[in-house]
Design goal:
With 169 residues, this protein is an alpha+beta fold. It has 3 helices and 10 strands, in the order E-E-E-E-E-E-E-H-E-E-E-H-H. Strand 9 and strand 10 form a beta hairpin. It is globular.
Length: 169
């Protein structure tokens, strides 16, 4: 059995359990004052901002090459009004995973990358009912896209953990 605890280079302490997934509660564009806006809604899986911008929560999966595992970013992706409506229309429909992928823009800023992750082009793939959609980034030289295509090591998972466990705001 692999010990997924690690000695943190940031604080010098040992952390038990190396997390293999992180997520954000809202798209980067959500602001607290929108809680009082009747045209805006933030739920666990969907978000609408001022009845103009539509988001769905999704998984960005990255293979972990030396652990026979996957690393997941829980992210938000913006969809067009048409795609968002279609996704909602099929939300509880068995077989929805046969739907063609939807185009979307990554709407989560991931601090583990030196280059902004907002607005990377994605394809949103619907999964079986009860499973969050997953996204595939457009193949570019952006470090996140490269990691999704090529995979990462457990050492990289630890680097991400060290950064996020001690990330200030």
């Amino acid at each position: 059995m692999i010990d997924h605890g690690f000695m943190c280079h940031s604080c010098g302490q040992r952390h038990e359990g190396l997390p293999f997934s992180y997520g954000t509660p809202a798209p980067a564009y959500w602001r607290d004052d929108l809680n009082n806006d009747e045209r805006s809604v933030l739920e666990d899986e969907i978000c609408i901002i001022q009845a103009q911008h539509y988001f769905v929560r999704a998984r960005l999966v990255i293979p972990v090459l030396d652990a026979d595992a996957v690393f997941e970013w829980g992210v938000w992706v913006s969809l067009s009004s048409t795609s968002f409506s279609r996704m909602l229309d099929h939300w509880t429909t068995p077989g929805r995973e046969q739907e063609p992928a939807y185009f979307g823009w990554l709407s989560t800023e991931l601090p583990a990358y030196p280059i902004e992750t907002l607005n990377l082009k994605t394809k949103v793939h619907t999964e079986q009912v009860g499973t969050r959609p997953h996204i595939v980034l457009e193949p570019t030289d952006h470090p996140l896209s490269v990691e999704q295509r090529n995979g990462i090591s457990v050492k990289r998972v630890q680097e991400i953990a060290e950064l996020l466990l001690h990330h200030e705001g």
